[in-house]
Each structure stands twice: as C-alpha cells, then as structure tokens.
Amino acid sequence: MREHRRLGRKAAGQAVRVGTLLELAARAGDGRPLFSEPLGAWAMRGGVAIVRALSSHALAVLGPRDRRTELLEYVLRRGVGLPDGSTVRDLFESTKGHTAIDTMEDLTPLVDELVDRRCLRLKDRRTGRPGRPPSPEIEVHPSFRTENRTIRDTALVPSVDAYSANSAIESSADPLDVLEPART
C-alpha cells in the first residue's frame, strides 16, 4: 500500500503534465505558437480528470488482492501450465499441496468462477456408458496461452471481449481465430 501512497503524491505533477500536453496539442492543431500564452483552465481540468480516471483504474487493477482472487490466479496459472486436453481432475492433481485446495469440492467453485469469467471453458466428455461420467476437459482461453501475459496483468479478464471470444471459440475449428479483431 505504501507504493500506492507514493504514486498518489505524484498525481498533482502528473495532472499538470497531462494538462500541458492537452494544451500543446490543441495549439499545434490550431497552428498557434506553442509557448506564447499560459495554460488554459480547460486543459488543467482535463488533466485532473484524466489522472483521476487513470488513478481509479490503477487502484482497481493493482490494489490489494483478497484471498479468493489469489486462489483464482493460482488455479488459472496451473490451468495454463497444463497441456491441451487436460481435465479438471488433472487440474486438481496440479494444485495438490496448496493448503486451500484439499479436495475436488474445494476446486469446483474456483473452476466455476473462472468459467463465469470466461478464462476457462469446460467440455463434456460423456461416453454413453453407465457409471460416473469422466472429468470434463478444460480449455484455457487462448489469449492466456498465446500472449505470454501474466495473470496479474489481466485481472482475470481475457484480452478479447467476452462475447466475441465465447462465440468465436464455440464456432471456430481453430481457437486462435479469436485473437483476430472482430469483423463488423
């Protein structure tokens, strides 16, 4: 938290720099001399507004993590490390040794939340035979595997918007197609 306070003290200077850039951009766009007059109040208000918005975003993304978020990141990291075709049971085996995940019942709500966040997808592997169905296969969102991103950088959100990613995964033979920009 000390790091956040240190960055907060720099906000005033950052707002001045952003306001200055706004003013200079406006003057350059109008063809006026860049340094002939003082900065306008509109530019300073704009700089403050931009710094406030970016600070709020940074606190939301980089702020303190709760225990559940750390567990979700841990499970997702383990899922990314598994080969294609791995199952929820394989994911459980890879998380053995973590104090908060002792049984499949401990892992199931975490996997369900990662599915809700569209970081993972479960694929049924029903065989049609009697007995307990096999463990579902897990598919990790392609952006986590191909972009070498860290889980903390993503805040558990894939880089492709959830709607287009989900529909592209369901309709595409090649899961990497979701990384292309959506065509309108």
Compose a concise summary of this entry.
This protein is mainly α. It has 9 helices and 2 strands. Strands 1-2 form a two-stranded antiparallel ribbon.
Q: How would you describe this protein?
A:
- It is elongated and about 80 Å long.
- It has a two-stranded antiparallel ribbon.
- With 184 residues, it is mainly alpha-helical.
- The relative contact order is 0.09.
- It has nine helices and two strands; from the N terminus they run H-H-H-H-H-H-E-E-H-H-H.
Write out key terms for the chains shown.
184 residues; mainly alpha; Arc Repressor Mutant, subunit A; two-stranded antiparallel ribbon; 9 helices; 4% strand; disordered C terminus
Q: Would you tell me the overall average pLDDT?
A: 77
Which CATH first-tier class of the largest domain would you pick?
A: Mainly Alpha
Largest sheet: 2 strands, antiparallel
- Oligomer classification: single chain
> Could you give the order of strands across the largest sheet?
1-2
Helix and strand composition category? mainly alpha
Number of helices: 9
Given as residue ranges, the uncertain stretches (5+ residues, pLDDT < 50) are 157-184
Distance between the termini: 43 Å
Strand content: under 5%
Backbone CA Rg: 23 Å
Shape descriptor:
elongated
Instruction: Estimate percent helicity.
Output: 55-70%
What fold name stands as the CATH topology of the largest domain?
A: Arc Repressor Mutant, subunit A
Q: Total strand count, please?
A: 2
The SSE order reads: HHHHHHEEHHH
Indicate the CATH architecture of the largest domain.
Orthogonal Bundle
Number of domains: 2
